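FORM 12-B: Structure-to-Sequence Request
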């Protein structure tokens, strides 16, 4: 499965480094070429001799090797690798990666690398839970790095909790999975809508909703990571989108989202409309701030219907296009979602209901069911939105193969 794949392992100073020889062995058995960079702290936990015998290459630590006089180019190593995996990666190294500090050879390779990056952290539970570590992980994940969450269990400190590096066998599975999926959507044009829309009342106020846009952004990231070219029509959100294969088209109102999305649809092979589009907008948006009227305790705001973007795409859809919608429900969820699937002429509908704890707006997690045209319902557990996005892509991939 990994024949010919070039994998660079970056080992930092954690006791979990003792598990890396097994990872090297597993990768080699799977056919990969493996090179290793170990920080000087890492070499206190695992011997370079073991690693170099198993990998077949000398373990690198410095740009300049004083013993041999060799110069190890950080740029070349970054270009050589198809994937760099930092395992174990400490809280300290995560912080440096998040902020661009390059005070050792491994970090200079990180800064010059163009290939995908995987992170398998290991640390004590309180270091892992610390807000600064969590913030650094968020930054690195937003950068599109793949995160292999540490497991819960007994830690080297004797404490019990989250922080154990994932087992080498599981890391191997994630690496295999990454290469299997890497080019699944190569050459495909994907159109995604995400986020809320703001419907102006006057220059300072709007009618909006609580959507963060995270679900749609994760779907965009997942498609980009699997080889596709993505156009992301994105309502107002604080989220950063950084993947080079994603073209972000920022919009504010439902009208702007409609115009941008319909203009791009004819080029799209697959469209996934996850935006929480306002169904109504104020009939007139005032040009100046509406003043509070002292003689009245109430105010009428007349709303008119916005166009349904998804329905419009369903009407225009060609036989070679695949259209996916979302359905946010609070009651009679499956029944309502099936109705939307039919009335909007969709290939799939993804249902999330606010009845499920941890699902929908304001959460980093979601719980979905996917309904296809034959009205089969496939329900998933509560997962992070990144994992949910991966499930959605798996489903779309399988549906397109049928
Ligand atoms: N949608 C859209 N344009 C709209 C309204 C909704 O493209 N003006 C899309 C959403 O992006 C989503 C799907 O339609 O993919 C369903 O949205 P949802 O809010 O669940 O349902 P509505 O169709 O708006 O119906 P209702 O509000 O009555 O549930």
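FORM 12-B RESPONSE
SEQUENCE OUT:
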């Amino acid at each position: 499965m990994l024949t010919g794949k070039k994998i660079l392992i970056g080992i930092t100073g954690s006791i979990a480094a003792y598990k890396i020889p097994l990872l090297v062995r597993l990768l080699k058995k799977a056919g990969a070429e493996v090179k290793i960079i170990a920080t000087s702290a890492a070499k206190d936990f695992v011997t370079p001799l073991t690693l170099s015998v198993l990998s077949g290459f000398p373990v690198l630590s410095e740009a300049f090797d004083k013993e041999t006089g060799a110069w190890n180019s950080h740029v070349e190593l970054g270009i050589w690798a198809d994937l760099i995996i930092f395992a174990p990666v400490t809280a300290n190294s995560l912080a440096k990666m998040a902020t661009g500090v390059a005070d050792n050879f491994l970090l200079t390779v990180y800064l010059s690398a163009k290939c995908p990056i995987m992170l398998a952290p290991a640390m004590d539970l309180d270091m892992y839970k610390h807000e600064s570590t969590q913030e650094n992980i968020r930054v690195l994940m937003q950068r599109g790095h793949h995160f292999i969450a540490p497991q819960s269990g007994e830690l080297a400190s004797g404490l019990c909790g989250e922080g154990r590096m994932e087992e080498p066998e599981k890391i191997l599975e994630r690496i295999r999975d990454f290469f299997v999926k890497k080019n699944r959507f190569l050459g495909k044009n994907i159109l995604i809508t995400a986020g809320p829309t703001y419907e102006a009342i006057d220059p300072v106020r709007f009618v909006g909703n609580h959507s963060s846009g995270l679900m749609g952004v994760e779907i965009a990231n997942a498609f980009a990571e699997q080889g596709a070219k993505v156009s992301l029509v994105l309502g107002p959100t604080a989220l950063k989108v950084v993947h080079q294969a994603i073209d972000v088209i920022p919009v504010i109102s439902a009208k702007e989202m409609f115009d941008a999305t319909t203009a791009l649809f004819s080029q799209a092979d697959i469209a996934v409309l996850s935006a929480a589009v306002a169904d109504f907008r104020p009939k007139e948006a005032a040009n100046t701030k509406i003043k509070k009227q002292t003689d009245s305790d109430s105010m009428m705001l007349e709303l008119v219907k916005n166009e349904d973007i998804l329905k419009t795409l369903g009407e225009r859809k060609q036989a070679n296009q695949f259209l996916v919608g979302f359905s946010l429900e609070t009651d009679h969820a499956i029944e309502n979602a099936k109705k939307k699937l039919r009335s909007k002429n969709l290939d799939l509908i993804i249902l999330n209901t606010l009845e499920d704890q941890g699902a929908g707006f304001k959460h980093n997690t979601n719980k979905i069911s996917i309904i296809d045209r034959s009205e089969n319902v496939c329900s998933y557990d509560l997962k992070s939105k990144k994992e949910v996005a991966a499930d959605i892509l798996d489903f779309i991939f399988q549906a397109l193969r049928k």
